[in-house]
Amino acid sequence: MSKQFDVVVIGGGPGGYIAAIRAAQLGFQVACIDEWKNDKGGPAPGGTCTNVGCIPSKALLQSSEHFEQAAHHFGDHGITLDNLKMDVAKMVGRKNTVVKQNNDGILYLFKKNKVSFFHGRGSFAKAVEGGYEVNVAGAASETLVAKNVIVATGSNARALPGAAFDEEKILSNDGALRIGAVPARLGVIGSGVIGLEMGSVWRRLGAEVTILEAMPSFLAAADEGVAKEALKAFQKQGLKFEFSAKISKVDASGEGVVISYANAKGEEQTLAVDKLIVSIGRVANTIGLNPEAVGLKLDDRGAIVVDDECKTNLPGVWAVGDVVRGPMLAHKAEEEGVAVAERIAGQHGHVNFATIPWVIYTSPEIAWVGRTEQQLKADGVAYKAGQFPFMANGRARALGDTTGFVKFLADAKTDEILGVHIVGPFASELISEAVVAMEFKASAEDIARICHAHPSLSEATKEAALAVDKRTLNF
Ligand code: FAD
Ligand code: NAI
């Protein structure tokens, strides 16, 4: 017999589980179906983000940063260590514990909010009167019926043609997060977010890391000034980059992996590595969803077609997160999940794409919100720029990390903040002030007039806002 719900959510990543919780808060009977399995075959809700994305990558970034600090920077503080060692198995074990804490946390939240959780694969069966029938194939088979279905089935790593992931030598994000020992030579294809974060982890632990990037420029989505500063810092740390690389072959038949490519000058090159991470973007996932059964429309790249409100071509079927257009970020997925639940309840959920922050958790961290200087130029917007270096910030000096700067871009006439770009310590935390300011349509002067605690890194934000008017106080 089928089970009746008001809302069925397919996918328990940040888009799906948050949508389920919000819908339950609004008084709906809600089911959430997720198929992710832990190593014992049990449920592991949280999706890519919790299992093989945001959370485990940040755990490894933290461990490897501690090692880097102990190995190279503790000496500045008068701390000496003998026989410093890295136990990779323990580091990976700690990461797994952090992941499990998050999986368990989501299961607890489902209980707390009375969301019915089904562990298994959800697929559309058919449209029925007043809604849709969704099958669950897991330990037990179930049929659920609901008027509203929210699809949040996420994304998968894109493979390089002719180089399928074996997760032993050719690694997606999944394999990259569970390498058992530091590889002497690590290759990375793609100098995007995953390439930089994972490349940094293994470089800090002693791997020689070479990143091959197809584009001629570095981090094209970031502000050019920020990208330039970050590249300089990464190269100084020892990450090797090859831009305009055209990969022709990846051969994993021997001991390691040999990558053949043409460099920027068109010269044929080979790179031999022990392991290769391929991080060239991700593709929307609808595997097993059976969208054809109900006529759910996908675009030519496999993403579910939605409008600005996450409505699909079918009444009552919504889609959020990585499986639809827009940036593939956990917080974007969450915002869409909340907005859809509220729309189902007749409220006016809203996601402001103009103020979604981006963060890259390298060292230095990179974070931004709003438009870059190059975008403003291309859009013909008259703007003023203000920049303040962490070198001139007392807290950064005390921390021993003075790399980078905060940069403000404001409208030349109205002074409204159009973009804030940060490269440097704790950029991931500092960016929130800029997001709030932009949501409230603040001017650079508003930030410049707000009292910021001393000594704090946030003073660099205030000073960058002052710099828009050419009146920094400490530089
Ligand atoms: P997902 O998290 O992919 O969740 C989809 C879920 O649906 C999965 O559990 C899947 O098993 C399940 N599923 C799929 N099909 C079915 C089905 N038919 N039936 C049942 N279940 C199904 N973003 C950030 O904002 N910050 C970061 O620091 C960050 N770091 C990242 C690091 C890495 C290495 C990677 C790979 C990604 C990172 N991301 C980060 C991106 C972030 O993980 C995604 O944007 C986010 O997980 C998308 O959420 P989602 O809910 O749309 O999909
Ligand atoms: P990405 O889109 O960030 O970067 C991919 C890079 O690969 C680009 O620079 C691209 O030019 C390059 N590339 C593409 N094809 C190539 C080829 N054939 N040869 C060489 N280079 C090639 O994708 P990535 O790093 O795989 O990450 C996927 C997504 O996951 C990100 O876009 C982001 O949305 C999310 N993510 C977010 C994080 C965060 O918020 N901190 C961390 C990690 C991932």
TrEMBL record:
Known InterPro entries for this protein? Class-I_Pyr_Nuc-Dis_Oxidored, FAD/NAD-bd_sf, FAD/NAD-binding_dom, FAD/NAD-linked_Rdtase_dimer_sf, Lipoamide_DH, Pyr_nuc-diS_OxRdtase, Pyr_nucl-diS_OxRdtase_dimer
SUPFAM superfamilies, sorted: FAD/NAD(P)-binding domain (SSF51905), FAD/NAD-linked reductases, dimerisation (C-terminal) domain (SSF55424)
Q: Name one GO cellular component term.
A: cytoplasm
Q: Where is the FAD/NAD(P)-binding domain?
A: 5-337
Q: Where is the active site?
A: H454
Positions of disulphide bridges = C49-C54
- Give the misc comment: The active site is a redox-active disulfide bond.
Q: Can you say where in the cell this protein is located?
A: Cytoplasm
Among Pfam families, the record links this protein to: Pyr_redox_2, Pyr_redox_dim
| Name the record gives this protein | Dihydrolipoyl dehydrogenase
Top-tier EC class: oxidoreductase
